[in-house]
Amino acid sequence: MPKLNLHKRDYLTNLGQDVTESELEARLSPSHAPITQRVNRSPYINQRNLNDRWNKLNNPAAMQHLFDAHTQQTMSAYEKNIEYFIGTVKLPIGTAGPLRINGLFAKGDYQVPLATTEAALVASYNRGANLITEAGGASAMLLNEGVTRTPGFAFQSLVQAGQFVAWAVTQFDDFKQIAEATTRHGKLSDINVNIEGNHVYLVFEYLTGDASGQNMVTIATNAVFEFILAKTPVTPEFAFLDANLSGDKKASAQTLRSVRGKKVTAEVTIPAALVEKHLHTTPERMAQFAQMTTVGGALSGTIGINAHYANALAALYIACGQDAACVAESAIGMTRIEQTSQGDLYASVTLPNLMVGTVGGGTGLPSQKACLDLLGLYGTGHSQALAEVTAALCLAGELSIVGAFCAGHFARAHHKLAR
After folding, report:
1. Known active-site residue 280
2. How far apart are CA 188 and CA 168, in angstroms?
3. Residue 323 annotated to the active site
4. Distance, CA of 204 to CA of 353 (rounded, Å)
């Protein structure tokens, strides 16, 4: 019989042997020693603030890499994206492709920029992209759009909560007018009501144009929130602008069936001969792998079933100026891999939480704009295409990694490339 929690028990036992009780208390107690390295309180970018911060940091070697000549010349470009600026970080970028996409919005062959420090990652996506392209491309379809913010209101009783809801559902036109007065691009499309005892959660859903839109919907909902607190006939005991029902930057089961950001599906059918040529395995074996790992995912309590959407999303989001923290929610989705009746391979991905935009946020920063320009997807009118490209990229990654496991190449590739 295996010993359960053996490592945890031994670790705590060793900790007690290495550190006495008084030493542990001394290490973990609050410290009121003088504060060092306190920098200028102003969060803004200007030369005076930069000089002050680097003088306090007192690390010329770090400054040489983070605040190089090019960064000094372009630092004003970052003033709307960061506070307490000290420089920029350089990440290696590779491209995966050509990735052929036959979508509603994305049409053509794409070289997809990926920023990562993980060896073998771009090579894997490149292999999947080439396989899809040789098979005629992936079909991709944007299914839905919507970004939510969810204020919460607490009342003394369920009766008061019901009275509040009865009033709130009559106010949609006013809410819409107030919300849309804060933005040129955002549109309030729907409001859903959730009652939990004497608590009420209002789910405000917006269309955000070509922006990812999280700041947009926060500002718009805050204006409505203030209107509600001023006008409601039933005053809440307390209320908050967001009550954690939106799924913002966290894995959430509810959006698996609905949408947050952009919901996209992509599919491809690949002849068995191409599977053998590119992945060195068979459709049958890949379908068996998918069946076993679907059960494994269910046993582990995974929300959705996929191999590694997060790898594609993190690398693409960083390269193209998206909010990288949104990978937490965007990486939810479903992958299906099956053998067709003709013996070929069918594969699809569905991602209901793609938080992507081609305007606003970090999309206009120099390097990130350059990456979107490489895709031909910077600016107004391209966010839907970017979402379809993202889904097809995830599909390429699923095919490649599943093929690697089935052919027994997964560890070998990392050993070869992660040298």
Report:
1. no
2. 15
3. yes
4. 16
Give the span between the Cα atoms of 160 and 128, in whole angstroms.
Answer: 56
**Which residues lie across from 200 on neighbouring strands?**
153, 195
pTM of the model: 0.92
CA–CA separation, 408 and 282 (whole Å): 12
Question: Given 3.90.770.10, 3.40.50.10490, 2.40.160.20, 3.20.20.70, which CATH number is that of 93-145+261-417?
Answer: 3.90.770.10
Choosing from 52, 323, 338, 344, which is the catalytic residue? 323
Cβ neighbours for 96, distance < 8 A, ≥ 6 positions apart: 111, 112, 114, 122, 125, 126, 128, 129, 393, 396
What is 129-154 written as a DSSP string?
HHHHHHTT-EEEEEEEEEEEE--EEE
Distance of CA 57 to the CA centre of its chain: 32
DSSP 334-376: EEEEEE-TTS-EEEEEEEEEE---SBSTTTTSHHHHHHHHHHT
pLDDT tens per residue across span 35-55: 887 877 899 999 999 999 999
Q: Where are the beta strands (DSSP E) in 244-291?
A: 261-270
| Residues 112, 113, 118, 123, CA torsion sign | positive
As a residue count, the chain comes to 419
List the domain boundaries for the chain.
93-145+261-417, 151-240
Q: Enter the CATH code of domain 151-240.
A: 3.30.70.420
Among residues 52, 118, 134, 284, the one annotated as catalytic is 118
Q: Is the pLDDT of residue 348 over 60?
A: yes
User: From the CB of residue 103, how many other CB atoms can be counted at a distance below 10 Å?
Assistant: 22
**Residue 52: active-site member:** no
Q: Which of the following is catalytic: 185, 199, 409, 414?
A: 414
Residue 164 CB partners (closer than 8 Å, separation 6+): 153, 155, 200, 232, 233, 234, 236
Bridge partners (DSSP) listed for residue 359: 211
Q: What is the pLDDT of residues 154-199, one digit of tens each?
A: 999 999 999 999 999 999 999 999 999 999 999 999 999 999 999 9
- Joined tokens for residue 173: 């036109």
The confidence score (pLDDT) of residue 416 equals 62
Q: Classify residue 195 by its DSSP letter.
A: E
Contact 126, 98 (CB under 8 A): no
Three-state DSSP at 417 gives: helix
